[in-house]
């Protein structure tokens, strides 16, 4: 029997330098909080997902990104290169490299403000050739019309298209019609689906063949071909949840590019995301493929039947 070869994943999206300060709690509006440690980390949803796809997912990965002509671009490029990502870089002389300002609390919650900078310079004509590409993975930290143009080009080339609809915003039907997969958290589903009263209604309202909803520490669920799949989260002691969702997205698409079943891809992505939460930073926290494989191989650490039952009861689908 001839084995189907894995296909390359192309991630098109944002790249930021994250400025992270740790504090006892995330400040409320008008509140000043005295922070502690300060560090910078390479980040951005697109770049995080590309690193996760290559490092945690162990899959050939390319990335289309836009950077400024400044020193902030250097650690981002170095991180992507170290992960083995092939870069298609757009340089913008007028805009700075994107940045994000993150307050990380002691209970692993965060508050993030993004200054997109050069990320807004990505245009339709920047999309590289799609020869050998199996999946195109997109997010919403770049212009919406550019995202739509990339999805349209991929669909025309027979490339599967996945969109992580974050940050949340309403999506035009024209874009949804181009997607093979939509990945959202609960808040993003509410925006995309028009504030549904429950998960079941939200899933039914989104006209995409496969919709995946991440549920934080509970796990995730997927609707595909009218079937519901559930995947409880791995139990961990979280240190920093930054990039957990991005790791999930990248590892998931990497697994699918290796021709895994969706249920197996959800398990793999959940394991990668769990490990990410136990480390500081965005790309610096993303585990290797061997670390994910080791967690999956230890069946004593996988979610048990009680976790499946709890997730099913909470979703009430």
UniProtKB/TrEMBL annotation:
Record GO biological process: D-ribose catabolic process
Cofactor binding mode and count: Requires a divalent cation, most likely magnesium in vivo, as an electrophilic catalyst to aid phosphoryl group transfer. It is the chelate of the metal and the nucleotide that is the actual substrate.
GO molecular function: ATP binding; metal ion binding; ribokinase activity
Catalytic function, reaction form: D-ribose + ATP = D-ribose 5-phosphate + ADP + H(+)
Family annotation (InterPro entries): Carboh/pur_kinase_PfkB_CS, PfkB_dom, Ribo/fructo_kinase, Ribokinase, Ribokinase-like
An annotated GO cellular component: cytosol
Cofactor(s) needed: Mg(2+)
The entry's keywords: ATP-binding, Carbohydrate metabolism, Cytoplasm, Kinase, Magnesium, Metal-binding, Nucleotide-binding, Potassium, Transferase
Enzyme class: transferase
Positions contributing to ATP binding: 185, 214-219, 245-246
Residues reported to bind K(+): 240, 242, 276, 279, 281, 285
Superkingdom, taxonomy of origin: Bacteria
This protein's pathway: Carbohydrate metabolism; D-ribose degradation; D-ribose 5-phosphate from beta-D-ribopyranose: step 2/2
Enzyme Commission number(s): 2.7.1.15
Record text on subunit structure and interactions: Homodimer.
Protein family membership: Belongs to the carbohydrate kinase pfkB family.
Name of this chain's protein: Ribokinase
Organism from which the protein derives: Stenotrophomonas pictorum JCM 9942
Gene: rbsK
């Amino acid at each position: 029997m001839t084995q189907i070869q894995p296909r390359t994943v192309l991630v098109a999206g944002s790249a930021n330098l994250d400025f992270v300060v740790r504090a006892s709690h995330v400040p409320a509006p008008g509140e000043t909080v005295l922070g502690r440690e300060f560090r910078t980390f390479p980040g951005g949803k697109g770049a995080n997902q590309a690193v996760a796809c290559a490092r945690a997912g162990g899959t050939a990965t390319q990335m289309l990104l836009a950077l400024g002509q400044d020193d902030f671009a250097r650690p981002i490029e170095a991180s992507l290169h170290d992960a083995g990502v092939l870069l298609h870089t757009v340089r913008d002389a007028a805009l700075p490299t994107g940045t994000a300002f993150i307050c990380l609390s002691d209970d692993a919650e965060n508050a993030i403000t993004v200054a997109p900078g050069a990320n807004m310079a990505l245009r339709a004509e920047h999309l590289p050739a799609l020869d050998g590409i199996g999946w195109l993975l997109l997010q919403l930290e770049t212009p919406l019309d550019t995202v739509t143009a990339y999805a349209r080009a991929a669909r025309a080339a027979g490339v599967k298209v996945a969109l992580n609809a974050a940050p949340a915003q309403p999506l035009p039907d024209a874009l949804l019609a181009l997607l093979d997969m939509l990945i959202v958290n609960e808040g993003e589903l509410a925006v995309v689906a028009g504030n549904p009263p429950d998960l079941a209604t939200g899933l039914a309202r989104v006209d995409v063949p496969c919709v995946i909803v991440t549920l934080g520490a509970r796990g995730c669920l997927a609707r595909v071909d009218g079937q519901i799949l559930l995947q409880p989260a791995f139990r961990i002691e979280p240190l920093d949840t930054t990039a957990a969702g991005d790791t999930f997205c990248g590892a998931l698409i990497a697994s699918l590019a290796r021709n895994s079943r969706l249920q197996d891809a959800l398990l793999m992505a959940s394991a990668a995301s769990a490990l990410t939460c136990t480390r500081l930073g965005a790309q610096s926290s993303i585990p290797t493929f061997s670390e994910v494989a080791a967690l999956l191989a230890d069946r004593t650490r996988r979610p048990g039947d009680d976790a499946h039952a709890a997730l099913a009861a909470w979703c009430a689908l």
